[in-house]
Structure prediction request, 405 residues.
Amino acid sequence: MNLPIYMDHQATTPVDPRVLEALLPYFSKSFGNAASRNHVFGWEAEAAVDEARHQIAQAMSASEKEIVFTSGATESDDLAILGVARMYRQKGHHIITGQTEHNAVLDTCRFLEKEGYEVTYLPTDRYGEIFPEQVRSAITEKTILVSLMLANNEVGTIHRIGEIGSVCREKGVFFHTDAVQGFCKIPFDVEAMRVDLASVTAHKIYGPKGIGALYVRSKSPRVRLLPLIHGGGHERGMRSGTLNVPGIVGFGRAAEIALQEMPEESRRLRRLRRRLYDGISRLEDVTLNGPALPAISDDGSLASGEVERRLPGNLNLSFGHVDGEALLLGFKDVAVSSGSACTSASLEPSHVLKALGVADDLAHASIRYGLGRWNTEEEVDYVVKATVEVVERLRREAPLARARH
Ligand code: PLP
Prediction:
């Protein structure tokens, strides 16, 4: 077993060697510009981009021409929200989103508020869920867009995207989903789920960083966007700029592999997560943030009647009677993520945990474990041991913290 152990796969993932192999030639031998129409270098690059577009479209049941490549999901979220808001300004100025969205969505909505748009930030229940009926009641005749994520990056909550999509379609409101965390990890189908716009990124699915895409529905209903970047008219005018061919090729291959391996990988991740949770929850005062873990059979399949309400690789725990900052510093050779974001000098508890109603001290003392493709049982056992040691040591060293609870 090699140290340090990486268990933060909701933040980013390493590039799969099969992906690297596919994309490397496009840096050197096959370096053409996909927009060069009059020589073989351009044609070769264009063909590679076409194939990747096909692979990504397939992974969400879209058609190739509905995929617009961007620099990542932040740009994709921005393009969806700003693009629709500005294009349909005459129709209305109201947008609906959720309190637990990623900042790529929240900050964009806040920005639009300054431009005179109205935004409703729907609250969640204690598991991070937003229900279709909440969306229905929030829609007014001024609503032009609903933006709700497929799965949450901190607590793994999987939204009922299909049901929310149906409400939006019925009401004639466009529906965008930030599908970053769920894409190629849980089933996602823009047709069946009635999604009109979807943002995805390669680096969460073992592809390279700096490449993402926006799905833009082309018919029934057709979505039109005002672009953010103007220039040569690439990507049907929605996103100008020379295409990142190696990134795109890597993204396509990453989606193809992840889609193919999804059932097996989900079972493996559910088993590892169960082992991690069972190990750590032997400690006292550990609370699970987000949806309950599903009952599974020995091979990791969902037990009958169980529904996947949480990303298979996600575990988020809070530890009572522990100082948050000390907890973070306690993990030496294990890469996990904390429930606090360091903003300037102060440690702000995560807006997601806050929205779920987790008290500030517990939100501070929380850890997100993100299991991924190459984590092993041995690593899980090591992380259990490391967590138990850190928490027990901190509780011993700072008995005062106990008194606060
Ligand atoms: N949306 C969600 C839910 C994410 O987890 C991330 C990742 O950080 C992003 C958007 C931003 O993606 P990118 O890093 O490709 O800009």
About this structure: The mean pLDDT is 95.
